[in-house]
Design the sequence.
C-alpha cells in the first residue's frame, strides 16, 4: 500500500454532526459552572508573615541544634557523645513534666487560634 | 477538516472578551461555532459518537474555565484544539477505547465483492482499525495530521510538540501501517484459500 493510498483513505474520515441538544447541554453545564462561586483563594498576604516566621523559627532551631551537636562533637568521640545526649534526654523526661505540659497548652492554644483565624477568613469571603 | 468556517477569527476574540466581561451567553456562539470540529476530533480518537460528545462537552467546559489563559498571540482555534487534544489524549489514556492487535485488525471479507477481494469500504475500515491499533504516540500524531488536513505545523501545535517530532512520528506511523496493511488486507483471502 502506498503513502498516497493511505493519505487518500485517512483523509476522508466520516464526519459526524453534533446531536441537536449538544450546544444546549454544554451551555447548561457552563451556566452551572458560572453560578458556582469561585474557590476561595489562599490568603497569601495574611499567611505569608506567619509562614515566614515559622520558617525562620525552624531554621533557628535547626542551626541551634547543629551548633549544640557540633560542640559536643568537638569535645567527645561518638561513644562519648551518646552519653551526654542520653543524660540530657533523661533530665528532660524526668524533670520537665511541667515544662512539657506548658508546651502542650501552648500548642493547643496555637491550634485554636489558627482554626479561629481560618474560620474568620472563610466567613469573610463567603 | 474545515473548522469553524463562515466566521472570521475576530468573532472569536469578540466573543471571548464578552464572556470574560461576564456575558456567559456569548460562550454559546463559541460552542455553536466549534462544536462540529471538536466532536469530530474526539470521534477520530474514540470512534464512539456518545463518548465523542461527552469528551467535547468536557473540552468546552475546560475552555470556559481557562478562557482567560488564551493569550491572543495564537489563533483561538489553535488554543482550543490544543486544549481539546490534551484532554482527549489523557481521557483515552485513562480509559482507552477497545482496540485489537494490529495483526488481528483485518475485517472479514465481503463475500458480495465480485472480484473476491475487499470492497473499498472494507479496506477503509481495515485501515482505520490498523490506525486504532498503532502505539499511542503514533496514533495521536496521525489522527491530528489528517484532522488538520495534512498540516504538520497545526498538528504539532495541537499536540504541543516540535514539528520535527511530529514528522518523525508520522513517518514511523505510516511505515508501520504500510508494512502491516498488505498482510492485513490479504488475511481474509489466505484464510479462505
Sequence:
Amino acid at each position: 500500500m502506498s503513502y498516497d493510498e493511505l493519505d487518500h483513505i485517512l483523509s476522508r474520515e466520516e464526519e459526524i454532526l453534533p446531536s441537536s441538544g449538544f450546544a444546549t447541554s454544554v451551555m447548561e453545564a457552563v451556566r452551572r459552572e458560572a453560578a458556582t462561586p469561585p474557590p476561595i483563594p489562599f490568603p497569601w498576604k495574611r499567611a505569608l508573615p506567619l509562614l515566614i516566621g515559622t520558617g525562620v523559627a525552624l531554621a533557628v532551631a535547626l542551626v541551634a541544634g547543629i551548633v549544640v551537636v557540633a560542640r559536643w562533637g568537638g569535645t567527645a568521640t561518638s561513644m562519648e557523645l551518646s552519653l551526654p545526649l542520653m543524660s540530657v534526654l533523661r533530665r528532660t523526661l524526668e524533670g520537665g513534666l511541667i515544662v512539657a505540659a506548658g508546651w502542650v497548652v501552648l500548642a493547643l492554644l496555637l491550634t485554636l487560634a489558627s482554626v479561629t483565624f481560618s474560620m474568620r477568613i472563610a466567613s469573610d469571603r463567603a | 477538516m474545515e473548522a469553524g468556517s463562515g466566521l472570521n477569527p475576530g468573532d472569536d476574540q469578540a466573543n471571548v472578551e464578552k464572556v470574560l466581561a461576564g456575558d456567559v451567553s456569548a460562550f454559546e456562539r463559541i460552542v455553536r461555532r466549534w462544536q462540529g470540529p471538536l466532536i469530530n476530533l474526539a470521534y477520530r480518537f474514540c470512534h464512539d459518537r456518545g463518548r465523542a460528545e461527552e469528551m467535547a462537552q468536557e473540552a468546552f467546559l475546560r475552555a470556559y474555565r481557562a478562557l482567560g489563559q488564551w493569550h491572543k498571540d495564537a489563533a483561538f482555534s489553535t488554543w482550543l484544539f490544543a486544549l481539546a487534544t490534551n484532554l482527549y489524549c489523557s481521557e483515552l489514556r485513562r480509559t482507552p477505547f477497545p482496540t485489537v492487535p494490529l495483526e488481528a485488525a483485518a475485517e472479514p471479507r465481503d463475500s458480495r465483492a465480485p472480484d473476491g477481494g475487499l470492497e473499498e469500504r472494507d479496506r477503509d475500515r481495515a485501515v482505520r482499525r490498523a490506525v486504532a491499533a498503532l502505539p499511542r504516540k503514533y496514533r495521536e500524531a496521525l489522527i491530528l495530521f489528517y484532522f488538520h488536513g495534512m498540516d504538520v505545523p497545526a498538528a504539532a501545535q495541537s499536540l504541543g510538540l516540535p514539528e520535527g517530532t511530529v514528522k518523525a512520528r508520522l513517518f514511523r506511523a505510516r511505515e508501520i501501517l504500510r508494512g502491516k496493511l498488505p498482510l492485513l488486507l490479504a488475511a481474509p483471502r489466505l484464510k479462505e484459500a
Remarks:
- The helical segments of chain A are 3-11, 22-35, 44-75, 78-95, 97-125.
